[in-house]
Design goal:
This protein has 438 residues and is an alpha/beta fold. It is built from 13 helices and 16 strands. The strands form 3 sheets. Strands 8-9-10-7-11-12-13 form a 7-stranded mixed β-sheet, with helices on both faces. A 6-stranded mixed β-sheet has the order 2-3-1-4-5-6, sandwiched between helices.
């Protein structure tokens, strides 16, 4: 399971630039999903063989020049609670400010790993000035320049060193073949009620396994011939510690749940509809190649006509395009409507995600389709696709071997993906299609 590294600090110290630098190696690989808001507030990094999620708290600050100090303090509190490693970013050009001092005091009290990074250290004079930051009292202090990248390699080296080999001790106690389902979404859409309705008062059907963090709980559901782990990231959280409705908090929670899950059930409020934060979550689920089911909750509160559900579904699929081969269910957790159906569909999506298609079946079908609809020619030469196989990954990925792999256009890649979806069951699952030199 990927760990969370959060960048905290006051406004205008260069958090977003450092964020881009830390995920920079991966940026070319992970395209932005159309429809996802332009605020890049989380990204994925791999350094020295370790995967981790980077969260830029600056992405949550609206109009950062007049941001209240209280908001920054709340973000630091959440980062302390949720992240595995905290990078505290300061700015050599302003020196140590009162707000830096206050953030440092909060961070010194935490048992979490904290790395102090002094930004904009890009000449000898600033190198000397930067020495005053040792007075903040952090053993791991780095002088760097986010813009040029100097010093960021050393920071990444230590981050990867500090991340444990097995990032999730709890997963050792889990039965590997049992699917893990997380219910994600914005606050107050009914996630806790859904978990309570499933687990209910019948505690005899469940076994809780506490995760490495004190607030991720895996509940084993074993009833009605259904067996799965339900990930409850709200867990045994102390109420009132931070404001439940804070956007940053809900995103940190969603990232954590998505990383731990095989299948994500995204709950949205029927009255509010699909919001930009939901699109962010869908983008995240897609990038991490997890299964997805969308549940429209509180459907009992909507006035209905003949095609209300159908029209709602069409609108919703338009918003989440191009990844819209996704099951959509309409529920009322309060009335206990279609709760069990939701789980059945989530388990079907899990089967879709882990299915392996025989190479002979793939070739017979796909090569025939390709012959009838060949890719556009490249400089007058035909592109010949000779062979196709499925990669041995935890999600569906296919390689097509051909003579000019770099010349296959995106529209043809989409055509291939649509054909795979048409002939095999991949509803709720992201597919990766690669073209390689034969």
């Amino acid at each position: 399971m990927s760990q969370i590294v959060a960048i905290v600090g006051r406004p205008n110290v260069g958090k977003s630039t450092l964020f881009n630098r830390l995920i920079g190696e991966r940026k070319a690989i992970i395209d932005d999903v159309s429809g996802v808001t332009r605020d890049r507030i989380y990204g994925f990094s791999n350094w020295n063989g370790k995967d981790f999620t980077v969260v830029d708290t600056g992405g949550f600050v609206k109009g950062s020049s007049d941001i209240f100090e209280a908001e920054i303090r709340r973000q630091v509190e959440i980062a302390i609670e949720e992240a595995s490693i905290i990078v505290f970013l300061t700015d050599v050009t302003t020196g140590i400010t009162d707000l830096d001092e206050e953030i440092a005091r909060m961070l010194r009290k935490t048992p979490k790993k904290v790395l102090l990074a002094v930004n904009k250290v890009d000449n000898a004079t600033r190198q000397l000035t930067a020495n005053e930051f040792w007075s903040l009292g952090f053993d791991n202090t780095f002088f760097l320049s986010s813009i040029s990248g100097s010093g960021t390699g050393e920071l990444l080296d230590l981050i990867s060193e500090m991340l444990p080999e097995d990032a999730d001790e709890a997963s050792n106690k889990l039965v590997p073949d049992i699917p893990k389902i997380a219910i994600v979404g914005q606050p107050n859409v009914g996630k806790s009620s859904m978990i309570n309705a499933l687990v209910g008062e019948e505690r005899n059907i469940v076994t809780d396994i506490a995760g490495t963090t004190r607030d991720s709980i895996y509940t084993l559901y074993n009833k009605f011939d259904k067996k799965f782990y339900l990930i409850d990231t709200a867990g045994i959280r102390k109420k009132g510690k931070v404001h439940e409705d804070l956007e940053f908090y809900s995103v940190m929670r969603a990232i954590k749940a998505i990383e731990e899950a095989d299948i994500c059930i995204l709950m949205i409020d029927a009255q509010a509809g699909l919001e930009s934060q939901d699109l962010n979550i869908i983008g995240l689920v897609q990038k991490r190649k997890k299964g997805l089911v969308v549940v429209v909750n509180k459907w009992d509160l909507i006035e209905k006509e003949t095609n209300t559900a159908r029209d709602f579904e069409t609108k919703l699929k338009d918003k989440i395009a191009p990844f819209n081969d996704v099951p959509i269910l309409f529920t009322s957790v309060l009335e206990k409507q279609r709760i069990f159906k939701t789980i059945e569909v989530a388990l079907e999506v899990h089967e879709n995600r882990i299915q392996k298609i025989k190479t002979s079946v793939l070739n017979n079908l796909m090569l025939d389709i390709i012959e009838k609809n060949p890719p556009p020619t490249f400089r007058g030469k035909s592109i010949k696709i000779k062979y196709v196989t499925q990669l041995p990954l935890y999600y569906p990925a296919f390689v097509f071997y051909c003579n000019y792999p770099d010349q296959i256009k995106q529209s043809y890649r989409n055509f291939i993906e649509n054909q795979l979806r048409k002939h095999f069951k991949f509803t709720g699952v992201s597919i990766s299609v690669y073209f390689r030199d034969k």
